[in-house]
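This protein record is not my work; I was only asked to verify it. Where you disagree with what is written, explain briefly why. This is what I was given:
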Amino acid sequence: MSAFNDIRDYVAIPRVLSLRLSPDGSRLISAVQSLNADGKSYGTALWAIPVGGREGEPYRLTRSAKGEAGAVFTDSGDVLFTSARPDPTVKDSADEVASLWLLPRAGGEARQVATRPGGIGAVRTAGDVVVFAADVLDGEADTEEERRKARKDAGISAVLFEGYPVRYWDHDLGPGRTRLFAGRLGEDRLEDVRDLTPDAGEALRECGFELTPDGATVVVTWRTYLPKGEWRTDLVAIDVATGERRVLLSEDRHDFTGPLAISPDGRRVACSRERFTGLDVSARSELWIADLATGQGRAYAPDLFPAAVEWAPDSSAVHLAADHQGRRPVFRVSVAGPGDVARLTRDDASYSNLAVSADGRALYALRSGVGIVPGPARIDVANGEVADVPSPAPRPEVPGTLTEISATADDGTTIRGWLVLPERASAGAPAPLLLWVHGGPIASWNDWQWRWQAWIMAAHGYAVLMPDPCLSTGYGQEMIDRGWGNWGPRTQADLDAIVDVALARDDIDAERIGAMGGSYGGYMANWLAGHSDRYKAIVTHASLWNLDQFAGTTDAAMFWQREFGEPGSERYSLLSPHNSLDKITTPLLVIHGDKDYRVPIGEALRLWWDLRRTEVEAKFLYFPDENHWILKPGNAVAWYETVLAFLAQHVLGEEWKRPGSVA
C-alpha cells in the first residue's frame, strides 16, 4: 500500500511549492503546502533548508492560520513574505488581506512592515529598497480604506467595465487595479512608501516585475491595449526614485513576458519574447536578452520555450530551464552568441525555481518529474551532477514503473510519451490502459502533476499512457506548426499511432482501454468520443465542446480568435467536437467547475444537455466552488473516486457503485 491507494492519504502529502537562496548561500527558503487540521483546506508555511556546507535538517520558520507566501530575501538575509495573519501589535487586528512581513535573520517574531487596503502581492527587494504590487481603487488614496468598507457595507459587488478582459482564470477583475509601490526598509516599518504607477490603469494586470541589483530601476511587463479587444505586452523600465517610465521592449505583434531576470551587473534583462499567433502563424516563444540602457536585444536558444531563467553571477550567461523531449533540463546560454547553448543537466528530471550561488559553482532548483515528487536539489555548474538536498516534504515512493515509448505518425514524425505501469503488470496479468491527453495545448507531459496524477490510477491497476502529440513543447517548432489550426484530426492521428504501440505490448490489455483529459485534453476527449469507438469510457474535464461558443466566452477570447478566425469562421465548424454529437456511442463522464473562466461552465452545460437529449450514457460531476482545477482536498477525493468508479464500470466491467464522497 502507498499514499496513492487511498485518495485521502494522497491529498495529505505535503508539497514543496517554491525555492529561494539566501545571499550568503547558507540556506534555502521554501513555501510548503500541507493539509490543515480540519482536513478541508490547505495551508502554507515557510521552511528553511540549510545548504552550502551547513547542511542539516529543514526546519519550519512560520506558523499561522492564514499561511505565508511570496518569500524573498533582503540583502542582509532577512526574509520578507506576505500573509493575511493579524498584526499582534494592533489590538483587535483582523486583517483580511495580505500584508508584508519581515522575519529577522537572527530569529524572533515576524513583524508587519507594510499594509494596503487592497492587500499586497508580489515583492522584490535590493539593498534597502522594496517594491511591491498592490490592488488599488481609483480615487483619493487617503480615502481608499473607507471607500472599500462603504462598498462592502452597502453590499455592492458590481463592477463597471469599459475595456476587456473582465476576468482571468478563476477570479473576477476589478474594481481595484494593480499598481507598483516602492519604499525603504526602516527599523520597524517600510518607510517613504510611494506609488510608482499612479496612471497605470489596466496596464499592470497580471504583471511580472524585477528590481535591478542597485534598487534603482524596476522592470515590469506593461499591457498596451489595442483596438478590438486586443492587447500587447511590452517591457517597461521605471526609475524608483522619480517614477519616470520608459518603454524598454516593444514590438508590433509580439509580447515580452516572464520569466524575467536582470543580470547581476545591472546591464541586461532576460525575458520571453512571444509572437502573436494567426491563422497560419503558430505559437512561438524564445529567450530574449536586451540591454537595459538601450533596449537593443536579440533572441537566444532557438526552439527552447523559457520556463525559468537565472543569471550566472558574472553576468556572462543565463541558466535556462526549458521543455525538451519529455523533460525540463537546465541549459547554459552564453550571452556571447545566440547559438552558444549547452545542456547542463542530463537526467530525466524537470527543473524550476532556479537559484545560483554567489560563487557560481552551484545552482539550486526544485527537481521533479513525471515520477519524481518536487524537492530541492543542487546542480554542480561545472559538470552538471545533481544531488538532492534534504526536503521539508520527503518524497513518497511511486507505485509502479515509468517507461518511455515512441511511435511513428502517419507523416513520419516521431511521437514520444511516458507509460506509467502498475507494479503487477505483466504478460500473464496485462493492465487495462488509460490514454491521458495533456492540456495546453502548448505543453508537455514532463513534470509532476498534483492534479492530474497518473500514479493514483497505477495504484488502482491501470497503465497510463501520457503522450506528447503535435502542439507539444520540447520537440522543436515543427511539432507545434504541424498541429496549428488542426487540433482534432492531426492530434488524433498522433494519439492513434502511440496508442497502437502501447496496445501491442504484452503487459497491456488491448480490450480494456479508456481515455481522459482536461482542458485541451478534454477537448481531445470530446473529439475522440465523436471520432473513435476504440475506448470503453471517456472522462472529459473542463473541456471545450462548442468552439464558437467557447471562443467568445473564455477569459481571453483574442488568443483563440487569432488561431480560429472571426466567430463563425470555417475552422470552428471543422474542429468543433459538438458537430460529431450524433456519432458518440462511448459512455462519458463530464466534469466541470463553475468558477472556471478559462473554459466556462457553459461548455459542460451544453455538452451535458446534448448528451442527455441524444441519450448517450453519461454522468456529470459538477463542482459549484471550483475552477479550472479541483483544488480543495475533499473535492479532489470526490473527483478521483468518481473517475475510478466510472472507469471500473465501463473499462473493467464491474457493477456501478456510487462513491460515498458524492453520495
Remarks:
- The chain is about 15% helix and 35% strand.
